[in-house]
Amino acid sequence: MSELTPELLLHGYSIGIFPMAENRDDPEIFWVDPKRRGIFPLDGFHISRSLARAMRQSRFEVTINHDFNGVVAACADRTDTWINAEIAQLYSGLHDMGHAHSLELWEEDALVGGVYGVTLGAAFFGESMFSRRTNASKMALAALVERLNRAGFTLFDTQFLTDHLASLGAVEISRRTYHRRLDQAKTQSADFTAADILPLYEVVQRMTHTS
Fold this sequence. Notes:
Elements lengths: L5 H9 L3 E3 L9 E3 L3 E4 L9 H9 L3 E4 L3 H9 L8 H13 L2 E8 L2 E11 L2 E9 L4 H16 L3 E5 L3 H5 L3 E4 H12 L13 H11 L1
Parallel strand pairs: 7-8
Antiparallel strand pairs: 1-2, 3-8, 3-9, 4-5, 5-6, 6-7
Helix pairs in contact: 1-4, 2-8, 3-4, 5-8
């Protein structure tokens, strides 16, 4: 692979591919274009009763883009990760360009959960999430989906479909269907930072009232 830049990375997303490394210590980066693609229907996030109750009672504070690099580092801080140092640096570059964003959960001054991804038009490409408290990543994901809805996004790409994401409402579509939806979303506009930041109890209130 030729030397990657944030601009080249964004072009990759625009044509439906994304980068990965085998592990944290492997300097090689390769492009991935799955035959089956995971997506979150933006009107189909599933909040269980227990998760809804936890969100109503939670005191976690929600922020966006408050500690982007900290979220990426936390997502990479696990035994098995595809985020090597170069990939982390490239996402930081995309963040500086306004094409990568994070949503954080805080317990006082401690970063306890979060998710980050890349934006292009009305498409959000979810990259990774982490949790340092029970349900923190699920809460962050719920807050993200609610934000994407209010901000005008039409496609939430999860790349792969895991059992965990499927339990929250994610589904799998064909590569052809994905590329068609991506082509549509690229031509539309959305602004990740435009919507107000809602507390978790209001996120769950809005999502359960519209589900």
